[in-house]
Amino acid sequence: MPSNFMKKVRDTLRVRRYSYRTEQAYCYWIRYFIRYHQLKYPGDLTPDHVIQFLTYLAVQKQVSASTQNQALNALNFLYTQVLQQPLGDVTKATRARKPPKIPVVFERDEIQNIFQVINPHYLLPVKLLYGSGLRLSECLRLRIKDIDFHRQIIIVRSGKGGKDRVTMLPAGLINGIKCRINQVRHYHQADLDAGFGEVWMPDALARKYPKEAFSLHWQYLFASYKRSIEPYSGKEMRHHMDDSTLQRAVKQAIAKAGIHKKGSCHTFRHSFATHLLDDGYDIRTVQELLGHKDIKTTQIYTHVLNRGGNATRSPLDRLILNATKNNATAPSASFRSTQEG
């Protein structure tokens, strides 16, 4: 398929303000769909071709339900927004099953162990993931201006679903964040001295307020140690820390701490919610801090608080408990022999 077509897809995504990650994912699935059908023009393909592709993903490739849904969303965007024609009914496609899952949660001592062994360069963002319940992308996209030390809050801009929200700023991280800001100030001044210093700003704000792109308060809190090329403008700028490096550091720390759980950066967000509920905070408060639209999404963490079998005691535990009590109350052999004598 000519690159002009994919350029049209990218332009349409950017006009509608889709994130760069979404743009990458949608373009991947659209190219995959076109190659699957021997490079035929998508406008000539019918809903049956879409059903065939989605079924192939579920049956032959055995992708997860979320992956298949992402492919469907990409194709729906292709037909409705780019080709301007309805996608039609694709409900006949074999759907990947999505079994209910209880999130993995770190215990408090496990989190402390991870803090002790993780690379110190990544300790502050990891503490922020747990202390404020941030998603990985939300944490790395924080700008200096989003930190309010006076009110001890963090303003999360354009979170999941494009929504803004406010979450807590842990008091124990204030000094560390101030030190981090001083470090970013040195980075920024070095960039200005080298003829750079501009940072990416959303929704064409850089054109509306050209000087703001060179200001300190718009710089990323977790700025990268080196500059890179911004994909939209092609300019050399200082972006935020790469998410893959933080994910890799967390994986290494989990293994080093001897924790046998399939944890990740997102596990700290699960732990944040679970520990707040465990401490007695209202579920509505936790919902607001997490930015969940539906209370049902937050309620999944209440299942983590229950012991196995909905807090029902195993009969084996009852048996062991009774045996322990009987042994504790039974007279010793020496006492019995004395009494008999």
Automatic annotation (TrEMBL):
Its main location: cytoplasm. GO terms for biological process: DNA integration; DNA recombination. Forms a cyclic heterotetrameric complex composed of two molecules of XerC and two molecules of XerD. InterPro entries: CB (IPR044068), DNA_brk_join_enz (IPR011010), Integrase-like_cat_sf (IPR013762), Integrase_catalytic (IPR002104), Integrase_integron-type (IPR011946), Integrase_recombinase_N (IPR010998), Integrase_SAM-like_N (IPR004107), Tyrosine_recombinase_XerCD (IPR050090). Belongs to the 'phage' integrase family. Residues 101-317 form the Tyr recombinase domain. Site-specific tyrosine recombinase, which acts by catalyzing the cutting and rejoining of the recombining DNA molecules. The XerC-XerD complex is essential to convert dimers of the bacterial chromosome into monomers to permit their segregation at cell division. It also contributes to the segregational stability of plasmids. It is found in: Cytoplasm. GO terms for molecular function: DNA binding. Residues 1-83 form the Core-binding (CB) domain. This is Integrase. Keywords: Cytoplasm, DNA integration, DNA recombination, DNA-binding. It comes from the Bacteria. SUPFAM superfamilies: DNA breaking-rejoining enzymes. It comes from Endozoicomonas elysicola. Pfam families: Phage_int_SAM_4 (PF13495), Phage_integrase (PF00589). One of its GO terms (cellular component) is cytoplasm.
